[in-house]
């Protein structure tokens, strides 16, 4: 959550950040804005060649839409045929933080241009290296207030700055229901073989389907909402088979402009996560969990980990860059290091 540490009446301002020294060179073809599902770059051998932009993909409610980026697996790699077959329907979904956007839009904003190496396209390529042989989906927040504040109100009730108001599972609205329909419609739009069905029980889940969820900074509010929905979703015969295929959830330096619930702390809710069978990963930096101006973030993170362990879960956890001063640069770098 790239916000100033003083929060008044729910308002947060993006910190004036120094330019990164490691900003990757960006070519004109990479900045070119394309529509529909057109490839961002046709150069042979480039991961950009495998990246598609899918605009206004509907979720469970047709008027609730999100733009998606899809990075297809590299079919030219050296994987054995059996491994390719086994990984053919494995998916990773990433929810980004503040400032992050499509490259061509970030380049037009003074505060965004200095962070182009963390654009949605660049992150998709980074995740493709982290999770080879998988489809990588980057979900763009449905609203970017002032071109800065990511708001995931299609997944969780949020104010204009993206601070969430969490709620239990609903058969009509929620993070799981929206994500499932979004992936289904995205797969159909991208003409993927054997797509996920938008609704239904076990027979609607394609063979070999698995799902890894990754939230970074503000994007962690979506994962938190899913944790609040987990008990109800697992009890719903129409949703339970989908939830069962979520193998891993990664929280990467979660943060948002609200004054609490940066991490889930409700014990009953965390008990449901602990027994769900999902592998839990929490990667943080001093930027979020060691800030004396927002001491509750570190306390909530500690409570999140301790409670899960008390319920028998074994969450993997790491504090990155602990010997370096807190910085936005390292906050972003956790995307590379986790």
UniProtKB/TrEMBL annotation:
Q: Name one GO cellular component term.
A: mitochondrion
- Its transmembrane ranges are none
Question: Which Pfam family name is an example for this entry?
Answer: C2orf69
Query: Which range is the signal sequence, renumbered to this chain?
Result: 1-17
Record keywords, A-Z: Signal
Family annotation (InterPro entries)? C2orf69_mit (IPR018881)
- Stored PANTHER family: MITOCHONDRIAL PROTEIN C2ORF69, UPF0565 PROTEIN C2ORF69
Its protein name is Arb2 domain-containing protein
């Amino acid at each position: 959550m790239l916000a100033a540490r003083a929060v008044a009446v729910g308002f947060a301002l993006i910190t004036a950040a120094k330019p990164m020294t490691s900003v990757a060179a960006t070519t004109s073809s990479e900045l070119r804005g394309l529509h529909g599902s057109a490839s961002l770059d046709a150069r042979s051998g480039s991961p950009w060649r495998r990246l598609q932009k899918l605009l206004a993909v509907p979720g469970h409610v047709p008027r609730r839409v999100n733009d998606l980026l899809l990075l297809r697996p590299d079919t030219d790699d050296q994987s054995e045929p059996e491994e390719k077959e086994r990984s053919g329907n494995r998916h990773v979904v990433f929810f980004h933080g503040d400032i992050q956007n499509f490259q061509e839009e970030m380049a037009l904003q003074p505060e965004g241009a200095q962070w182009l190496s963390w654009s949605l396209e660049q992150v998709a390529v980074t995740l493709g290296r982290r999770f080879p042989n998988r489809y990588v989906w980057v979900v763009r927040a449905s609203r970017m207030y002032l071109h800065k504040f990511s708001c995931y109100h299609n997944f969780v009730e949020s104010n204009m700055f993206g601070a969430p108001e969490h709620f239990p599972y609903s058969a009509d609205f929620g993070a799981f229901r929206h994500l499932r329909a979004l992936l289904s419609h995205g797969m159909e739009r991208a003409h993927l073989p054997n797509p996920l069905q938008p609704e239904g029980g076990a027979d609607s889940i394609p063979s070999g389907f698995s799902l890894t969820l990754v939230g970074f900074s503000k994007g962690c509010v979506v994962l938190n909402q899913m944790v609040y929905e987990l008990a109800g979703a697992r009890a719903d015969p129409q949703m339970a088979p989908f939830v069962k295929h979520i193998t891993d959830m990664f929280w990467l330096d979660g943060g948002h402009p609200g004054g609490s619930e940066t991490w889930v702390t409700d014990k009953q809710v965390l008990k449901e996560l602990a027994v769900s069978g999902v592998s839990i990963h929490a990667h943080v930096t001093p930027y979020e969990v060691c800030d004396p101006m927002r001491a509750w973030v570190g306390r909530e993170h500690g409570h999140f980990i301790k409670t899960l362990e008390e319920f028998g879960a074994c969450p993997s956890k790491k504090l990155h860059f602990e010997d370096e001063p807190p910085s936005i640069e390292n906050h972003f770098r956790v995307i590379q290091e986790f």
